[in-house]
Amino acid sequence: xxxxxxxxxxxxxxxKLRSSGVSDIAIVTIPDFAGIFREINPDLRVIxxxxxxxxxxxxSAYIGCKEIxxxxxxxxxxxxxxxxxLRRIIERAxxxxxxxILCLDRKPSLKTAEEGLKLSxxxxxxxxxxxxxxxxxxxDTGVIFCGSRSLQYMEEAxxxxxxxxxxxxxxxxxxxxxxVDFVDVTGLLWRDxxxxxxxxxxxxxxxxxxxxxxxxxxxxxVSKFLNRNFSTRISLYLYKSGLxxxxxxxxxxxxxxxxxxxAVIPTGFYLIGxxxxxxxxxxxxxxxxxxxxxxxTSVRGEVFDNILDRIADIVIIAGIxxxxxxxxxxxxxxxIIAAAGTVxxxxxxxxxxxxxxxxESLRNIxxxxxxxxxxxxxxxxxxxxxxxxxxxxxxxxxxxAAGLILLFKGSLTWTWLVQRRGRYEAWPxxxxxxxxxxxxxxxxxxxxxxxxxxxxxRLLLSPFADIVVLEAPITLEVASLLLLVEMAIIIYFGxxxxxxxxxxxxxxxxxxxxxxxxxxxxxxxxxxxxxYLLFALVxxxxxxxxxxxPIVGSYTIKxxxxxxxxxxxxxxxxxxDRLYKAYREALEEGISAK
Length: 594
What we know:
Blueprint: E1 2-4, E2 7-8, H1 9-19, E3 26-29, H2 31-40, E4 45-48, H3 57-67, E5 72-75, E6 79-81, H4 83-95, E7 100-105, H5 110-115, E8 118-121, E9 126-130, E10 139-146, H6 150-161, H7 167-176, E11 180-184, E12 190-192, H8 196-213, H9 221-241, H10 247-264, H11 270-293, H12 299-323, H13 329-354, H14 369-382, H15 386-408, H16 436-460, E13 468-470, E14 476-477, H17 478-500, H18 502-516, H19 520-543, H20 553-593
Parallel strand pairs: 3-4, 7-11
Antiparallel strand pairs: 1-2, 5-10, 6-12, 7-10, 8-9, 13-14
């Protein structure tokens, strides 16, 4: 079964495991297929079940775990998934001591929820699993981490339920002892392939899985949320077309575009220069993506790309300096710091990684190359390229300082500077539980206050609307202030209503699960989005009334109305997209049946 020509389901799974750092891989099968698997991949360990009596996936997992002692990662051979799912469960396994760790998808489609292994949670732990359960909390994705005690539970389940039992039996025994953990993988793509229609659906998401896996965990904020949205689609188009462009050529192209952009800025064409620099930033991601897709990665190519990036960064700084010449002493100093920062940021990350110090938190500081080039683009388009020098210089200093803190974290003692003194709760301790009844009372109280507040502004203060509060330098009437007061009342009490409705929504969603057969997460998010949509519609309606405000009225309506409209459009899209994904397969099967 191939996802694309030359890529079988099994080879895809093995590739994802290896890219996640897993090197020792074994497959459990019967003797008839052992030779086939060895021929497909000589590096694959093959564990054979010699007994030809019928067995379930519990028994095959048990045989595999006896051969390769846990801890280990257990996957179903007919499931495809994003690489991030494997990395998440591996990261969770470093901190968890449970016998089993499952991957929980809180928002499966209706068909997946009906056919999949449902997980029931209690106080953020797995309480029970089973295909016959109501999908209140979500389903298992077929990726399981087996801890050191997992083999004991498997052996107990085999003795109790027999060879044809499923893995859920061992997991449920462990769940009784609170020995099952989970990691939330909601939003990540995966697929269980049981039928030809499942294979067709898997092929549909296969390329999207490839594209998502091109996004690296080390990407900066701009790269993750902007650049990769363009670069990954270009790289995937080249891959699907079979058009291989050597990554070094792409790196050189990015360098040339960046240099041209830097050369254009001193001529005064800031817009063109800024666009070229941002395009170079996007192209800079394509070389590595193409290399990974076509299996053409190399250390030499990575070094070549890094050298060109550093040179291009300094050339861009030089182009901005020439464009803004002459500079003050301070600007010259900041330009030197900015040029040095383009090198020191990369060097700081590289050296900390060599010491096995996690640099994920540093990525949240927008000083990486993607953020720097994006700021150059924005400032150049705005006509103030020198401001990007200020930004690069300041964020580089912050980044390097944060890196030094990471380097010495734990080796310095600060107790002589700051001391924490104990705080004690008053006796007796009064436990306050926010129940459904309390949530309803809070919701009613804030709704009542909102109505009273609007009645006061509309009925009591309206007769005074024509009173002039200020005449010079602008004319300000009470009517304009009433609009602002009404909006403030709606925002203040509306936010309290939304906040207090959380438990109520949770209660409603748990009731609707039995009727709609969807997980409580999907229902809860749909209810929340509907509430936010109504709130946004009210604000959008009120925003048009603000045009009467003196001086700022026209600017307010031109900024607030479009922003609110975009929020409304996004909420409507999220609602429709969520329902479409949940019911798509069920609708398709219903139409096919008719």
